[in-house]
Amino acid sequence: MTETTPLRELDVRTVDGCRVLSSPDLGYADGAEQRLYDIVQAASDLSSSSLELAEAATDWGTTYSLVPTRANVVRGLDLPPDAKVLEIGCGCGPITRYLGEQCAVVDSVEPMPARARVARARSRDLTSVEVFVGTLDDVPAVPTYDVVMVIGVLEYVGLGVLDADPYLTFLRQCHAVLKDGGTLVVAIENPLGVKYISGAVEDHTNRPFDSLEGYALQSPARTFPRQVLQGLLADSGFASEVLAAFPDYKLPRAVMNDTMFRASEQLAEGLPRFPSPDYLVPRLNLADEGLTWSTLVASGVAEHFANSFIALATKGSGPRCGRATATRCCSTPSVSPSTRCAARSGAAGTTCTWCVVPSIRSGPGPPVTTCPCGTPSPRPNLWSPAGISSRCSWRSRPAGRSCCGDGRTSSRTPSGPRWTSSRTTSSSLPATSWSPSTRSGATAGTTGTPCCCAASS
């Protein structure tokens, strides 16, 4: 029997499978909700790595909620199977689905009924998941959860105001529902992101330089530079570390911690792919984003200019859940979202390792990656996500599939230290990456060109 939580014990009505806590009616919708509901209701594969759902995406509204890449923001976290997770602002449920596949208890709260209905439909076969209509204000302030997920939400809680009070109130509410040692995960855009510096429009206002100018005009949201974000978390009772996400937290393909920036300038420069995508409004081509990023890396300040941040904030001093150990790499298969080197089962039972700070060596024999503080590990043919948590995973390309699952093919450079990639004119797959838990099509000896998607640029 699934464990209960104070939120689940509330006596509330149920509509469309969702338990209704309140009717906040925030008015946020992108118009794709009914289409998403119809797609999800008709789908036979609801999994977080579902190609059936990904192939049904036709525009940004459906892509954002259906492609497997969406859950990459949390795939790199070592979530304990027995964890209790609270997700605030679950939207249409792409991350809810992944959390429900990994954890024992997932309470997902969404203020918009139309979106909550899609999230419930996406997780309808998971007994671990309950979806609620409401807000964080409706969650009992009892230290219940091991992890609280706030993905793309914090920027909206103050309705764009500069005053810190609404953001602090929200973060302190998150603190109140976490167990001692629990982790708050906050994903948010960076107002000083390299794409904005290079001319891309601000994601919430579609105006260039808006965040760089401190949101001088009215905005529905407000994002925070790294130092300000960590200050808000500290004032709310958290100790935190911040990871860099590229191209952003929405569809991330690389997540890097500070150790990578210090240990391997080449990888810090080469892992992100530029230019970052413009999802709705084309940018002003004022500067080369890739060259700007190279300059920031060489100057030793790049971690402050990532396009998005993933903050891992810990409450108290108890046993930590999902906490990164930034000084360790390739030491044990146990635990860290950003520096883990966890042993996993690879193709045909082959064991492989993941490491956040790999360097890539080309030459005869199987591809090899090394960690600055570890020993080389061979990478046999593995089917893995493209750049999840900066994991550099080697695999083979099945016939008819693009190497990285998004229209790219990779080839070894004649003398360079890593792999490069190029666009193909067409692809049988949408812009998605692959789940390490399913490794769809991963069999030893699969024909195709071996590649390293994480290291492609």
TrEMBL record:
Protein EC: 2.1.-.-
Q: Which portions of the sequence form the region Disordered? A: 391-457
List the Gene Ontology MF annotations in alphabetical order: methyltransferase activity
Keyword ATP-binding annotated: no
- Highest taxon above the source species: Bacteria
Question: Which key words are in the record?
Answer: Methyltransferase, S-adenosyl-L-methionine, Transferase
Q: What are the GO BP annotations of this UniProt entry?
A: methylation
Domain named Methyltransferase type is located at 86-184
Spell out the PANTHER family in the cross-references: METHYLTRANSFERASE, UBIQUINONE BIOSYNTHESIS O-METHYLTRANSFERASE, MITOCHONDRIAL
Protein name according to UniProt: Class I SAM-dependent methyltransferase
Q: What is the lineage of its organism?
A: Bacteria, Bacillati, Actinomycetota, Actinomycetes, Geodermatophilales
